[in-house]
Amino acid sequence: MTELRLEGVSKRYRAGTDETTTAALTDVDLTVRDGEFFTLVGPSGCGKTTTLRTIAGFEEPTDGTVSFDDEPMAGVPPEDRDVGVVFQSYGLFPHLSVAENVGYGLRFRDPPGGVSVDERVAELLELVDLEGMGDRAPDQLSGGQQQRVALARALAPAPDLLLLDEPMSALDARLRESLRRQLTRIQSRLDITTIYVTHDQEEALAISDRLAVMNDGRIEQVASPQTIYREPETRFVAEFVGDNNVFEGTVVARDGDRCSVDVGGKTIAIPAVSNGAERVHFCVRAAALSPAVEQNQLSVSVETSEFRGETVRAYGRWNGVPIVLQLEESPADEITVGFEPSSVHVLEP
Amino acid sequence: MRRRTFVGAIGSGAALGLAGCLTQDGDESDDSNGDPEPEELDLEGTLEVVTYESMIDGDNPAGPWLKEAFEEEYPDAELEWVQLPDQGIGHYINQAQGGQEIDADVYFGLNIDDLVSVDDNLEEGGLFRGLNADRIERSSRIRDGLDMGDPHDRVLAYDTGYISLVFDETEVDEPETFEDLTEAAYEDALIAQNAQTSDPGQAFLLWTIDAFGEDGYLDYWRDLRENGVRAIEDWSESYYGAYMNEERPMVVSYSTDQVFASAEGNDLSRHQIGFLNDQGYANPEGMAIFEDADSVDLAYEFLDFVLSNDAQAEIAERNVQFPAVEDEYVDLDDEFDQYAHVPPEAVTVGYDDLRGNLDEWVDDWAREFASQ
Amino acid sequence: MSATGRVAAGRVRAWLERHAIGLTALVTAGILVVMLYLPVGVVFVEAVLEDGTPTLGHFADVLTDPFYFGILADVFAEPLAIGTHLGSLAGWLAAISISLTLEYPLPGVDLPVPWLAVDTPGVRKGLFGFTAYQAALSTVASVVLGLPAAYVLANYEFYGRRTLRSLTILPFVMPGILVAVGFYAMFGRAGTLNGLLGTVGLGPYAFIETSPLAIVILAHAFYNAPLVARLTVAAWESVDARTVETARSLGASERRAFRDVVVPQLAPAVLTGALLTFIFTFMTFPIVLALGGLQLATVEVWIYDRIQRLDYAEAATLAILETILSLGLTYAYLRYESAQTGFARAPSPPPKERLVPDLRTALSPRRLAIFGYGLVALVLFVGPMASLVVGGFTDGSGLTLRNYSFLLERQLEGASFQTLPLPAIRNSLLFGVATLLIAVPMGVVISVLTARTGRSGTIVDTLAMLPLAVSGIVFGIGLLQGLVFGIPLPGGWRFQVTGAVAIVVAHAVAAYPFVTRNVSPLLTNLDPAMTESARALGASRFRALFDVELPLVANGIVAGAAFAFAISIGEFSSTVILASGGESYTMPVAVERYLGRRSGPAIAMGTLLLAVTAASFVVIDRVGGRYEL
């Protein structure tokens, strides 16, 4: 199995006719451990797909190195990198049958474990629950089935790395969830190092061992889902991951392990800020804002609310700051909530 | 049919009425002694003769007969026909300019304007040898007025044709003069050819220059154009396309037209020959020996052979052209005499007048015609 | 073979496979340098030299000559005198008058039609202006006449459809002289059409005399409408029908779905056809003069004249201006084409309807319109060819076989120095197949290298169209001077290229742009994820191309191959120039050589040319059809 490392990887494209370039990736450092399910998440245009294509060898980085198990990949064409790729559009070969699609990679690499090509194809089709579909044309399959064919095809030659580029984005929500479970099941069974690209933070948090949040060609934070969720390092991560209320204010007083911050005219108590910064960004998770807490009370004007089964998600504003709440009942138009200073997470400036 | 085959000129000085600038040179050729006759003739080997397509590939052409008969007479010799390249004489001018040796010995089918082109682009009197007339006994048989006017004596005529009108007598009366063609009776009646791309077209243009002078021909053509004359690319399209599908009742063509029409079984009323001003424009075809020729002796023998009785008759009848030699040196079928018409008077514009003028005449005419 | 031998052989194969595209590109570049850039450069350089020193004088002379550029010549002469130019434009606009009149558009038929007459004061178009004008009209006519054919061939099933589709490019191979003679035989006052009309008491009409320009434009459409049709059929059969179904399911009417979904998928092919038609008809040569006469002369006529008169400087200047115009248009078009980024997943053409399922349907307005178009096509496309063929079997006294007995006799008794029919046929077929084998890889590799590569790709792609954008006359003379006469090298050597191989390569150079133009739009439309998936699975770039992309663009390749074959069969000028030995003549060369004071033998040879070519097209489409989806 394989460990993947990106060191100082940058990618610039020439824009238009003039000599200026636009950076798609800037100084990306990343290590993906052997057997890990690793996700690149971020808004569209953040560089996550470029990163994936650089790993696969479809793009050569302008600077920096990509290495598999310490072996630098510069100049190695995609066909020699032993990666399996599943694209957003699947890229199935419409003129070949499902079995021929799955078996295509076995024209160039012997099936693992000394089995025959036919056996390997049958094995893979079984793995993705498509037994007996081998003779169909890809066009005759549903979107979810096509996606699984693409996955089986990518896995057939037993690649060192599995790269998935938004493979679920064309599917409906329910199918997505069941395929997601199937994917994690297969991934852990094969124990294959997997890089998964998505713009869906929920999906990213749900399936990854670790993930990298990307923004504007840079990596904002690499951590486990729990850490990303609870301890976002930057304002971008906090906002992107969702369920977070982000505030910005000026430190007005320090008092031991607390300090007071002026946010739009209201003084809020938060844990002490270690450095001597004047301006401070901090976030509070939706679930930590409660009508029952009497500290740091904010009176929020509610705009919409969504029923979420056990809870209600409400969106509104306080002092111009967008606020998200997780409540037990649908709120009135105005609601006052407070939060404990201990639930505040201070962000990097 | 090759584009540049049928134009030529013979000197019939009396017929030239150009505004004082066209005169016929007498024989001032002191370089005509050319190649002295060697003690012993070398009559072995291959003679490469360049000629145009219809001499070789046409319907019953003279080429194969000439080869066979020549080789019979000179058993140690082989005559090899070479297809004239597409660019015609320009090909050999280019080759000479590029300093390349020319393999061929004889050029068969040379026109006066070819020689003009040679002398305009290479050194004066170049590309071909000045011929030693003494070595070609039968050259004295060539009719008066067919000496082609080359001051450097590089060329001998071997046949000639005449440009005339061909018309449908059921649709129009025979036009008598050039001026008639600008009358209302002949409105939209005449098909001519583009003098840039067609030999009969160029010959007809030169004929009008002979008739109206170089200061008058453009005015005449303006009148013709107003009367609806059309200048079609080439003889084949104008004749087999437009004329034979009865687009118009008159076409610029050859005075031998009836020979073909009768062989095709056509009604001769559409194949009447009209000689404007009782003239026809003569187009002699000539032969010359390349300067680089290897088989010079054989080449001289070939030129002489082409002027023999049998060869002259075969060329005339197979290619449907008129012999270059006086009547007493050739016997033609009666049918040929019946259908091939000779104009009462032959006119042509000779070498000296074409020299330095031809391109400009044609260009002025074409610009006038094609102006948009 | 030993184990190490096998490994070595495997390595060689792997190396070859990995570098196959690069090597093909290299060979293509080499061929283009020797067989295109060198010969064209040899002539073009004359335009900027005066006695060996560089000059722009030739361009200045041509650009400021009103004969060539009409009123634009003044602008070129004094580009900065804007006030004067605007003044003359205003004067011209003020002199336009519009009036309503009654016209009788059909000659001899008393049917008045109200006609809005726009009377503009004469503008001096100049030779370039007129050339562009007639090319634009010809392009419109070719598109208008070609699209219905594409519609019928792509959407309806009927007996002989495949054969008909194969034969659409037949006009492409006809020598100009035969097209001219065929048009006169069809539309002349004593032609076939008037003969047919006469049987119902109409006519005769002077179709050609009434408007030579219209006939020239129709003749251009005769050549080019089939080109438009063939390109469009290939695209139409590659339309993703599911996108139509999606649009319909979203509530679009049939018409609306066609406009929003099908039209954008066809547009590149139609515009390619229009572009090629404009370029071809801009550089038209024998047809305009043969049917219209010198009044309709084009730039190419003057290039021919200047070459004949050995005035290479002016010929090259005119030709360069032609080429600049053609390449400019090509570049503009290719920018548009590369901006089209709809990824079709796979061709899944709509099922074909039966053309005549029953009598009732056959009488529906749409079917009747199709039959009406069929009649027009019969007159315009089949008519000239059929009239020509019939002409080969007749003479003044009725039916005859003497033209064919001429061919037979020449074959059986002809001397070695004569042109024989069978070798001409054999050479044509051999050269055609060899051309196809070279032109298809050349064209495909250029498509692959330029697809989806942005502006630099567009520039390369534009330059790759050079063979179509260079005057055929200039190319011919360049081959003669650059390759037949040869380029002197140091040490007394001379670089010369002639003979059969040179002919084939020259044909391939003329033909590969058709492959590229047929393949590129389809290739650009393929989902790049397919190639990339294949590569990630271990396929080299070449294998991915071979296994995935080529099968999916087979329609375009077969169409391109058919064009390549047609170009080779119909090619005349470079063939005669390079066939220096005289043995390498082809069918069109034989036609030209048999053309004498009697037209019969040439027409008989032309009929053979049509028959052999038609049979070949059917075979190509049948063989190629097996690879189509």
Automatic annotation (TrEMBL), chain A:
According to its UniProt record, this protein's enzyme class is: translocase
Give the superkingdom in one word: Archaea
Protein name (database record)? Molybdate/tungstate import ATP-binding protein WtpC
Q: Which keywords annotate this record?
A: ATP-binding, Molybdenum, Nucleotide-binding, Transport
Q: Which residues form the ABC transporter domain?
A: 4-241
Record localization: Cell membrane
Spell out the subunit comment. Answer: The complex is composed of two ATP-binding proteins (WtpC), two transmembrane proteins (WtpB) and a solute-binding protein (WtpA).
What EC number(s) would the UniProt record show? 7.3.2.6
User: Which Gene3D superfamilies does this chain map to?
Assistant: 2.40.50.100, P-loop containing nucleotide triphosphate hydrolases
Report the InterPro entries cross-referenced here: AAA+_ATPase, ABC_SmlMolc_Importer, ABC_transporter-like_ATP-bd, ABC_transporter-like_CS, Mo/tungstate-bd_C_term_dom, P-loop_NTPase
* Membrane-related topology note: Peripheral membrane protein
Q: Which organism is it from?
A: Natronorubrum texcoconense
What this protein catalyses is: tungstate(in) + ATP + H2O = tungstate(out) + ADP + phosphate + H(+)
A single GO molecular-function term is: ABC-type tungstate transporter activity
So what family is this one in?
A: Belongs to the ABC transporter superfamily. Sulfate/tungstate importer (TC 3.A.1.6) family.
General function of this protein: Part of the ABC transporter complex WtpABC involved in molybdate/tungstate import. Responsible for energy coupling to the transport system.
Report the GO terms under cellular component. Answer: plasma membrane
From TrEMBL, chain B:
Q: Where is the composition biased (Acidic residues)?
A: 25-42
Q: Where is this region: Disordered?
A: 22-42
Q: What is this protein called?
A: Thiamine transport system substrate-binding protein
Going by the entry's taxonomy, the superkingdom of the source organism is recorded as Archaea
InterPro entries assigned: ThiB-like (IPR005948)
- Offer one example of a GO biological process linked to this entry: thiamine transport
Entry-linked Pfam families: SBP_bac_6
Any GO molecular function = thiamine binding
Which source organism does the UniProt entry give? Answer: Natronorubrum texcoconense
Which keywords does this Swiss-Prot/TrEMBL entry list? Answer: Signal
UniProtKB/TrEMBL annotation, chain C:
Q: Which InterPro entries match?
A: MetI-like, MetI-like_sf
Q: Which UniProt keywords apply?
A: Cell inner membrane, Cell membrane, Membrane, Transmembrane, Transmembrane helix, Transport
Q: How does it sit in the membrane?
A: Multi-pass membrane protein
**What residue stretches are annotated with the ABC transmembrane type-1 domain?**
128-333, 425-620
Q: Which Pfam families would you find in this protein's record?
A: BPD_transp_1
Query: PROSITE patterns per the record?
Result: ABC_TM1
Transmembrane ranges, per UniProt, are 21-44, 127-154, 166-185, 205-223, 266-292, 312-334, 370-393, 429-451, 463-487, 493-515, 552-579, 599-620
Task: Tell me which family the UniProt entry assigns to this protein.
Answer: Belongs to the binding-protein-dependent transport system permease family.
Q: What is this protein called?
A: Thiamine transport system permease protein
